[in-house]
Give the backbone structure.
Amino acid sequence: MKMYLSAKQRRKTHRPQILTVLFGCGSVAQTVLSKGALGEPLTIHIGFTLGVMMAVYVAGGVSGAHVNPAVSLAMVILGKLPVRKFPVYVLAQFLGAFAGSCAVYGLYFDALMEYTNGELVVTGANATANIFASYPAKHLSVLNGFVDQVIGTGALILCILAITDRRNIGAPKGMEPLCIGLTIMAIAVSMGLNCGYPINPARDLGPRLFTAVAGWGMDVFRAGDCWWWIPVAGPMVGGAVGAGIYFLFIELHHPEPERKEENNVQDKYEIVTMT
């Protein structure tokens, strides 16, 4: 097996993140810029759910459809992803999220200018930076925000590991993206009050960097008592926590396959390799 990514693979690795941001942030843009006439919280949840689902379908056979650094970290911890691939995947995820933000900005540029009269602000009644990245609700403290991200991402990791674990019940082949999408929907409708369930460092920081250079300025990093690092660090901790919980309480307790079945698999493997 190759332990590195070719240039072609790297390009395909970051493409699915574009879809996640395009559909997800696009649904937020449509809701905000139409002043609720063409969107509501549920449509935003659906947008992100379908964005993640289609991203996994698009690149699942090429790179495993890694669109979240927290998921990639969990796979590294569990030995399912080589450490040397991790930085490449994370870089590709950030680039894909940044590119997706560019697409949303271009798609809704005229509507954005009309809505803001050309004044792009981060906070207040006419804020539009929240189209691209997460910002905390007024009631949310830094500590509670961090815990929010750890719990939300940990739940995501637990579900993804269960869905893709062939020694568990798992999901039928080809249905994994749908099940992962439904997991995002479950998180969205149950954990979105505090800060909008970013649970993905690349999906949040990539678009935030875009807004910083596209006209919103450095306030995107200062807003919410320098909130920006919470949806970056929290999900990474949540990814490690989710991986540890699944390994300790589920994976270690899978029943060992029967010896006869192991012998049959070994025999089949030897037959194949000898032909």
